[in-house]
Amino acid sequence: MLWLIVAPLALALAYFALLDGWYLVRVPCAVLRARLLQPPVRDLLAEQRFAGRVLPSDLDLLLHMNNARYMREADVARAAHLARCGVLGALRALGARAVLAASCARYRRSLRLLEPFEVQPPELPEDLKHWIAYNEASSQQLRTESGLGYTKDQ
Questions:
Q1: Cβ atoms within 10 Å, residue 77
Q2: Residues in CB range of 68: below 8 A, 6 or more apart
């Protein structure tokens, strides 16, 4: 009778200790925290920070955070950012998925067990800011000329 309790606990312990089971827990928790506990953000390009802590499953043989885990934490931060901006709900309503086409990381220093860290995006380059402003202005002008939408003045 005792094995009915011990066996599932041992399997759960092995799953979370040896495999990347925390990822399947962290993403939904981060999205729920972003939706329920943090204020919504309407600017998709606004800087947002995501705090985390190094877990035992994040460590490699040298007892510092594995490089692949940095990218995983950036993925969790991206899901929380999309939830706060409302993009995740819009994607779900459309039946679409968010796909990451490319990523780039700058490793500043090594992280140890239980050390807190913060994921923050880099500043947008000037040419990208210019491109975004140009597209926003031209799309607003097209909407105004066609009569399909509203302008910022209305």
A1: 21
A2: none
Greatest Cα pair distance, the chain, in angstroms, is: 75
Lookup result for tokens 């495999």: 19
Tens of pLDDT, residue by residue over 56-100, are: 888 899 999 999 899 999 999 999 999 999 999 999 999 998 888
* Separation of alpha carbons 102 and 96, rounded Å: 18
Query: Measured on CA atoms in the order 128, 133, 138, 144, is the torsion positive or negative?
Result: positive
The backbone torsions φ and ψ at residue 118, rounded to the nearest 5 degrees and listed phi first, read -140, 130
> HSE-up of 61 (CA within 13 Å, CB side)?
0
* Structure tokens given for 24: 């399947």
Of 16 and 131, which is predicted with more confidence? 16
Report residue 73 CA to chain centroid gap.
7
Closest residue by Cα to residue 87 from 23, 35, 137: 35
For range 96-110, the mean pLDDT: 85
Residue 143's pLDDT band (cuts 50, 70, 90): confident
